[in-house]
Design a protein that fits this description.
- The radius of gyration is 17 Å and the shape is globular.
- The chain has five helices and twelve strands.
- It has one domain: Clam (outer membrane lipoprotein receptor (LolB), chain A), CATH 2.50.20.10.
- The chain is mainly β.
- The N terminus is likely disordered.
Length: about 240
């Protein structure tokens, strides 16, 4: 997946992601083999409940210290009129960084160590490194969990309604940027199960999560790039 697609989930993110956040006290859920496919939307929450709906999500995500999950991602590239699908694993640790590790169709990774975003593919003889100003990435779901935790600072909640067993949040960014609109599907435990991000380019980035584990031990080493293969490092 090229930088354009990743940069705007993760422009996870994750949405993002996002993410997949459990309320305090939840451990791992049983792994879901198939991605969640919410049915058409149903009852709409009244305006008076919108603020409380956001507060519930913020509280759940504010308490997330670590997170790991499997994910499936689909990116529609408007300029090519083509959709790309991929899957892999996501890891997050507060004040350390995050890792999107792709297993298919290519083996590749996007690692943020708190300062730099590293990007590499198994078959390429180099990795790229880009210094990140997190202030400039707010509201793009670059840092999926932290953006969810401050969601009302970054987005206006257009509507909340039920989609089968989940709640669907329709969001509009408060500032102009890469993201034109976003949708977030939340389960009964206030975990993000699916994110859809629509970009000004016409691209649509959808990511779904399963096998979620929250606040379990995650090794700090996952968020450090190891140059064991002696690949060339190219600065962006």
């Amino acid at each position: 997946m090229e930088k354009t697609g990743m940069g705007n989930l993760v422009s996870v993110a994750a949405f993002v992601l996002f993410a997949l956040w459990a309320v305090p006290g939840y451990g791992a859920e049983s792994t879901v083999n198939a991605p969640i496919r919410p049915p058409e939307t149903q009852a709409v929450r009244p305006d008076s409940e919108r603020t409380s709906a956001l507060d519930e999500i913020k509280k759940a995500y504010g308490d997330v210290k670590t997170l790991e999950s499997s994910f499936r991602q689909s990116i529609y590239i408007a300029s090519l009129k083509r959709e790309r699908e991929s899957k892999g694993e996501f890891f997050f640790k507060r004040q350390k960084g995050f890792l999107w590790r792709y297993k298919a169709p290519k083996v590749q990774f996007f690692l943020f160590d708190g300062k730099y975003l590293w990007q590499g593919e198994e078959e390429k003889p180099f990795v790229t490194r880009e210094k990140i100003n997190k202030e400039k990435t707010r509201g793009t779901f670059f840092d999926l969990i932290e953006d969810i935790a401050r969601i009302d600072e970054l987005f206006t909640l257009k509507e909340v309604r039920m989609a089968g067993e989940m709640e669907l949040f329709e969001l509009m960014p408060k500032k102009e940027g890469t993201v034109n609109a976003a949708k977030v599907w939340i389960d009964r435990q206030k975990r993000v199960r699916k994110i859809e991000i629509r970009e000004f380019t016409g691209n649509t980035n959808v990511i779904e999560f399963s096998g979620i584990k929250v606040n379990r031990p995650v090794d700090d080493g996952k968020f450090v790039y190891k140059q064991g293969s002696r690949k060339e490092i190219i600065e962006r």
